[in-house]
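Is this the right way to post structure tokens for a design question? Let me know if I should format differently. Anyway, here goes:
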């Protein structure tokens, strides 16, 4: 998965607001709408509630959003309806979709989103050692790319299954390990 920008810029009229597709926001919105497909459907049908739920769960600068949205005028409604396509695109980011993914067919088994979120949380708090709050605030691409970086680091430090040793090297390692356990052997076999 490509590391995407940390935020998504939503243009509403002449204003721009940054939305962050965090794991927490994705989980909350997925649960509230019983799936991203339903959230996208509500947006496509012109639901202002769905648009406001997305913005409320993901807005970076709540104060600026409040100044824009609270005055009673029709501009907010008009701007939200005009941004429906952008909000649907943002839902795809929440779902972890990679817009730059290759056209190669995926080989993995489909995974329900509740299991997907659980695995991402386990990766963040377990593999990466992040706090629960840090994990909830991270985006899907941040978690996946951080895990990839951790795996690359571990492979560099400890090797991997892909790295094969020559048979003679394996024989030497085996002999060395056997010599360690043999208290009567005072020299290294060669």
């Amino acid at each position: 998965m490509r590391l995407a920008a940390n935020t998504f810029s939503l243009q509403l009229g002449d204003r721009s607001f940054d939305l962050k597709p965090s794991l927490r926001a994705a989980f909350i919105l997925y649960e509230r709408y019983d799936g991203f497909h339903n959230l996208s459907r509500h947006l496509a049908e012109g639901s202002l509630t769905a648009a406001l739920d997305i913005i409320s769960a993901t807005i970076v600068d709540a104060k600026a959003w409040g100044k824009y949205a609270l005055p009673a005028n029709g501009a907010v409604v008009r701007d939200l309806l005009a941004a429906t396509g952008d909000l649907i695109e943002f839902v795809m980011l929440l779902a972890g979709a990679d817009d730059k993914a290759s056209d190669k067919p995926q080989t993995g088994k489909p995974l329900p989103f509740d299991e997907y979120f659980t695995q991402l949380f386990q990766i963040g708090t377990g593999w990466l050692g992040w706090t629960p709050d840090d994990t909830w605030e991270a985006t899907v691409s941040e978690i996946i790319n951080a895990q990839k970086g951790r795996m690359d680091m571990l492979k560099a430090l400890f090797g991997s299954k892909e790295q094969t040793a020559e048979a003679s090297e394996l024989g030497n390692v085996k002999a060395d390990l056997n010599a360690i356990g043999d208290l009567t052997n005072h020299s290294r076999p060669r």
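Format looks fine. Someone answered above. Worth noting: The first helix runs from residue 23 to 32. Residues 164-168 have pLDDT under 50 and may be disordered.
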